[in-house]
Design brief:
The protein is α/β, with parallel strands linked by helices. The strands form 2 sheets. It has a 5-stranded parallel sheet with strand order 2-3-4-1-5, with helices on both faces. Helix 4 packs parallel to helix 5.
Length: 331
């Protein structure tokens, strides 16, 4: 069966998506051809005509070109419609879209479903995590005690990427032993105190910048800035989901199923979500993305986190007023 020309890998389990992308690239293109014939782009950083130009470009000394586009969810509906119409004509290059969740009602999704290949990677439930952890350990020639699995999930959370990284630390800590105990997990796993993270986000919700920065300083004594940003972003993703579900008057039991965290965490998140209106989350997520880029690119990760916290503690009205004052002062 010939390979398709259009692929969609989507879902919330980014580790599984990355693994599927690596398998797909191996299937479509030899590693030695990738320097000339593989493009990896973000939807928000390329105009649709430029993308079409790349897809229309013939391969250099290879069998095919492959274009990977991440975050196509950022495209507005008209752009998705135009891309769907183009794909129906059969692009000469292979296109792989990597998304968190394209709208299944729109033409782009239905077109790819019809003419290409769609692979879905939804968030694993709390019930599925122990099996995944056991399999991940088996592949490494290890096994985790049941209470070690519980401790791992409690300390790290449900994200597969972070779970995998922390399991590697536990394996290294255990040395040649194949059995991993709860004591191994508690000794080896990096963790940010749930209490401290909640205190930090509580301070942001109360617009107490000084208090929030003090909590940030405490956390940075134990953890690296990228991991701290990961935990802050994870917290705000849970807050956003809670905000949406609570606005729809859904019960806490549903929040627990969706978030995949213990009941006492659900109660705290539900209470904390009251500090953030649903309309505030787009700006928050935009700032988290900016902070991620700054941490990776500026060489001043702590400063990037401090600026993020200070900005999140400013209300939208205060931000607008400050900008207006700045404009007035330049006139």
């Amino acid at each position: 069966m010939p390979d398709a020309q259009v692929y969609l890998l989507q879902g919330e389990e980014d580790l599984l998506i990355d693994q599927a992308l690596a398998v797909l690239l191996d299937r479509l293109m030899p590693a030695e051809e990738r320097d000339l014939n593989l493009d990896v782009l973000r939807a928000g950083e390329i105009a649709l005509p430029d993308l079409v130009t790349r897809l229309d470009t013939l391969p250099f000394f290879g069998r095919r070109r492959v274009v990977v586009v991440k975050d196509p969810d950022a495209w507005k509906a008209p752009e998705q419609e135009r891309l769907a119409a183009y794909l129906e004509q059969g692009p000469p290059s292979a296109l792989i879209l990597v998304a968190q969740g394209l709208d299944r009602r729109r033409k782009l999704y239905t077109t790819i479903r019809r003419i290409g290949e769609v692979q879905e990677f939804p968030r694993m439930s709390v019930r599925q995590l122990p099996s995944w952890i056991a399999e991940r350990a088996r592949q490494a020639g290890r096994r985790l005690d049941a209470d070690a699995v519980d401790a791992l999930v409690a300390l790290v959370g449900p994200g597969l990427r972070q779970l995998s990284l922390e399991m590697e630390k536990a394996f290294a800590y255990a040395g040649d032993r194949d059995r991993i105990t709860r004591a191994d997990i508690e000794a080896a796993v990096s963790r940010v105190s749930e209490t401290t993270i909640f205190m930090l986000v509580d301070a942001i919700g109360a617009r107490q910048a000084g208090q929030a920065l003090r909590h940030l300083t405490d956390i940075l004594r134990e953890e690296a800035p990228p991991y701290v940003l990961f935990m802050i972003a994870r917290q705000f993703r849970m807050l956003y989901r809670s905000s949406v579900l609570l606005a729809a008057r859904k019960p806490l039991a549903m929040l627990q199923e969706v978030l995949g965290v213990p009941p006492f965490i659900v109660r705290r998140i539900a209470e904390q979500a009251k500090n953030f209106s649903p309309v505030s989350f787009p700006r928050i997520f935009a700032r988290l993305l900016e902070a991620d880029r700054a941490i990776k690119g500026t060489g001043h990760p702590q400063l990037a986190l401090e600026m993020l916290i200070a900005d999140l503690c400013v209300t939208k009205s205060e931000l607008t007023e400050s900008r207006n004052r700045g404009i007035a002062e330049t006139r």
